[in-house]
Amino acid sequence: MNDLHGLDGLITPPLARRGFMMTSLVTGLTLATARVEAQAIHTDMAGIEAGEVKIKVADGEMPGYFAKPAGAGPFPIVLVNEEIFGIHDYIKDVCRRLAKQGYAAVAVEIYARLADLSKLTDPGEVIRSVVPKSSDALMLSDSDAAIAYAAAHGGDAKRQAVIGFCRGGRNAWLYAAHSKSLKAAVAYYGQLRGTVSELQPKTAMDIAGQVNCPVLGLYGGSDSSISTDDVRAAEAIVKASGHKAEMVIYPGAGHAFHADYRPSYNKAAAEDGWKRMLDWFKQNGM
Hints:
eight-stranded mixed sheet; Rossmann fold
């Protein structure tokens, strides 16, 4: 496990006595955002092992998803950070795609204590009532637990990377500043600024100079929620800290351009970003 005190100001709230609101993952695609199901990618199970798992954390067991190549391994570990909509078919499929490439991919449902995301249909409710109550300290601790699970089930603890999408991209930035075991981080349109609070005291921009590994950022040039100036500034901060950084901005692509199940999907940007991610892994010992 990694030291939670690596980022100053993190507060772990008292663990809820009521247990988990979610005990299993979302079945199918999320109901909390617009979907174009016909274009969603479906990765088969040939040559891999994948499924829902239980990940031991401080206050019990969290639902998660794990995929790896068939065989004993050990395989490089990739921590996959979800969007705000839970671990549904899209995130599960991303894990299977990574397994097809030789990685042990693991995702943990970081919102399991707060809400049953399988029942939420309004993205505004998720944004207002779930995300602000999520503790960064618990997110980092749960992420450590997910990697520990992968390492105990065929993953190689000496080769770790993190990726994330949307809010998960922001969390990938934070995890890169938290873990000293990572070889690479990839943030898909991860928010760089935003509101801070007692539970979420740092933005990605705040910790960009504290990352412990090379960072690849994949951003949309038409994403109105993230300034391209901020993207370039974050890149410069990482480089100034002594780590490699590459921020790719796709003209014409908006937010969530990799989310193949949503209207925002941009096939060209998504495919190029995926290739760049895999190349980034290879360049950095994964």
